[in-house]
User: Which sequence fits this backbone?
């Protein structure tokens, strides 16, 4: 409870803070340096400084980006620099690049030696931001800057304006938040006034790396702050500049370029655009500062004291401080184990951030995603072989634009695999989330995937029983680690032959964690309305009722064992003139005492008893009754010891033919065989 209140307090202070922005000598560039971080300094000509210059000079080098959003990073560990460049949705690509290039020169000069910097250039046509922190996909409300029109408005105009403004902005907010991943932008207008003689023009935009929910939250915050700002001049115009979103509205001043493909909300046709001379000047400094007067000959810039806003905030802050202090004193001290877990979580977060690679690094490593370096193509995109700057060979999974794997699955895989380390799990070396690009960089596993061998009549002969047995044992150990031995209990939910990679020694490595789910330490089962995975490998309780648990992975493992032993896919196996599912075929032959019919004909008879024992274990795993299925810990013991007596499997599993008629379901991982 106290942690929640203290977190809320910090968020309240941070998001309510309106920072003072500085304007350069030209009046075109507004910028904020440092953003209040104590560790925000770097030394001139240091590695961080070099990385910053390199990153900003190449930020707009990707000519395939024509939607005005650039995000990249450069360097490693504490010298890693992250940057975001965003152009307003109505700015043309060439103008966008020029705007960001001009911002680069100004930001590095005006915020020299500061790791945290943000600037808006040329009437906010573009925003440039750099940081030593991870800033991608994070909704940051501050530092915020509010500017408002200095012209006075009549009370009548204010009332009419307020009525139409909120409806217009909330409609635009919904349009922008639900926009595509490369553009979260909307413009619109509405006619107001006693004689319908005034028009409100408005523009809202979020950085495209935000989810719909985060974009909505950022814009909603700005809309709700309108009544508390602008020195009671909300009826003329205002601007809200935040790192993650931008909002602007004007009266009788069309300040954006209208394009055919711009999302818009309009109650009526806009009035004629006034001449540039009628566009009013703005006060850039926010409340929380003393009034100042601009120098002669320049636009009138002033600041006001936000007493009406500041006093309630101060009272609320004081109340929360006292509550936090009180609860903190009452809270018992953490155990050593709890402290250690928190430290490990911090290390994990840092590790994940350090895995982020910039797009140019991956593009160079794969020879610009050359077809000659393409290893294959899966259901979610192509896989390329690459070589990093340090000479390490990697496999790069580049998700296709129309991939069924969304941002949630992508982030799920990144954060899960980054936290898991085991010899039988594929190792994630890096990732890239830049514009439309979603890339995963894995260790290169030279012998492709299990399905490449096991389902090919000629190639499966390369897998003698000794190799197949070690593959079965390695998969079992990898799943046991996920279920029990790692710090997290993980349910993979998509175990299948194409997701088992084989290294140079034919050791198996479990891959593709896009569908995986974390379980609590004491959690045994969870339900879902969205069934994901591959039919034939999915447990019946999951297919029919959406229930999954560690026993769901056990079922998938059982199917894998039967496939490895037989060399046949579970989707079909031919017995004379009849075709049936492998699981049904195995049960029938087990029942009739002809289990040897299940064994791949390319295997010799030297290990017949061990092979039959694996068939026995496989059938134990695919029992319909969850309770009867063994745990992975028991399975590993069974595989390691011939002296362990195996229980008899119950053939209560009705044929999966009804539920396995399709290959995949609901956007699940329907991966085609491909080498990696």
Assistant:
């Amino acid at each position: 409870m106290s942690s929640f209140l203290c977190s809320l307090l910090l968020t309240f202070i941070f998001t309510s803070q309106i920072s003072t922005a500085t304007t350069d000598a030209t009046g075109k560039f507004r910028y904020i340096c440092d953003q209040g971080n104590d560790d925000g300094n770097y030394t001139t000509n240091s590695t961080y400084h070099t990385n910053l210059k390199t990153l900003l000079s190449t930020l707009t080098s990707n000519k395939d980006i024509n939607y005005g959003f650039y995000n990249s990073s450069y360097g490693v560990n504490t010298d890693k620099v992250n940057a975001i460049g965003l152009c307003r949705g109505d700015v043309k690509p060439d103008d966008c690049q020029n705007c960001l290039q001009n911002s680069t020169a100004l930001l590095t000069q005006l915020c020299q030696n500061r790791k945290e910097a943000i600037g808006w250039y040329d009437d906010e046509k573009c925003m440039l931001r750099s940081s030593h922190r991870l800033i991608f996909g994070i909704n940051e409300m501050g530092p915020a800057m509010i500017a408002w029109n200095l012209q006075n408005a009549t009370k009548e105009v204010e009332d009419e304006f307020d009525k139409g403004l909120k409806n217009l902005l909330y409609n635009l907010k919904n349009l922008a938040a639900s926009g595509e991943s490369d553009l979260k932008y909307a413009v619109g207008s509405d006619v107001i006034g006693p004689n319908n003689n005034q028009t409100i023009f408005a523009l809202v935009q979020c950085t495209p790396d935000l989810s719909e929910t985060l974009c909505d939250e950022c814009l909603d915050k700005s809309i709700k702050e309108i009544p508390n700002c602008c020195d009671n001049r909300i009826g003329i115009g205002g601007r809200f500049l935040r790192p993650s979103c931008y909002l602007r509205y004007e009266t009788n001043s069309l300040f954006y370029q209208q394009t055919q493909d711009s999302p818009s909300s309009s109650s009526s046709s806009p009035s004629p655009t006034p001449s540039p001379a009628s566009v009013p000047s703005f006060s850039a400094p926010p409340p929380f500062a003393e009034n100042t007067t601009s120098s002669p000959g320049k636009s009138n810039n002033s600041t006001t004291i936000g007493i009406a806003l500041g006093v309630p905030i101060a009272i609320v802050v004081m109340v929360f401080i006292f509550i936090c202090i009180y609860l903190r004193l009452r809270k018992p001290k953490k155990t050593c184990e709890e402290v250690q877990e928190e430290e490990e979580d911090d290390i994990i977060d840092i590790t994940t951030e350090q895995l982020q690679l910039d797009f140019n690094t991956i593009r160079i490593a794969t020879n610009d995603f050359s077809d000659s370096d393409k290893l294959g193509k899966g259901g979610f995109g192509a896989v390329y072989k690459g070589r990093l700057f340090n000479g390490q060979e990697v496999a790069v999974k580049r998700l296709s634009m129309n991939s069924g794997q969304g941002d949630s699955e992508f982030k799920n895989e990144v954060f899960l695999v980054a936290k898991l380390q085991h010899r039988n799990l594929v190792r994630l070396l890096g990732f890239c989330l830049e514009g439309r690009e979603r890339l995963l960089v894995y260790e290169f596993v030279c012998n492709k995937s299990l399905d490449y061998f096991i389902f090919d009549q000629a190639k499966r002969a390369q897998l003698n029983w000794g190799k197949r047995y070690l593959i079965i044992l390695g998969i079992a150990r990898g799943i046991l680690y996920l279920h029990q031995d790692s710090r997290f209990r993980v349910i993979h939910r998509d175990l299948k032959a194409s997701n088992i990679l084989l290294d140079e020694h034919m050791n198996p490595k479990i891959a593709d964690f896009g569908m995986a789910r974390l379980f609590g330490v004491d959690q045994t089962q969870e339900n879902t309305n969205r069934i994901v995975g591959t039919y034939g490998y999915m447990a019946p309780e999951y297919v029919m009722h959406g229930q999954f648990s560690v026993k769901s992975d056990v079922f998938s493992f059982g199917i894998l064992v039967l496939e490895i032993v037989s060399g046949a896919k579970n989707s079909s196996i031919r017995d004379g003139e009849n075709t049936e599912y492998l699981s049904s075929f195995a049960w029938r032959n087990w029942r009739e005492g002809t289990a040897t019919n299940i064994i791949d004909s390319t295997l010799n008879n030297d290990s017949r008893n061990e092979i039959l024992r694996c068939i026995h274990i496989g059938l134990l795993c695919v029992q319909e009754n969850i309770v009867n299925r063994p745990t992975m810990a028991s399975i590993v013991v069974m595989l390691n010891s011939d002296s362990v007596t195996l229980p008899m499997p119950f053939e209560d599993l009705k044929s999966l033919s009804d539920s396995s008629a399709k290959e995949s379901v609901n956007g699940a991982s329907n991966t085609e065989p491909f080498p990696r």
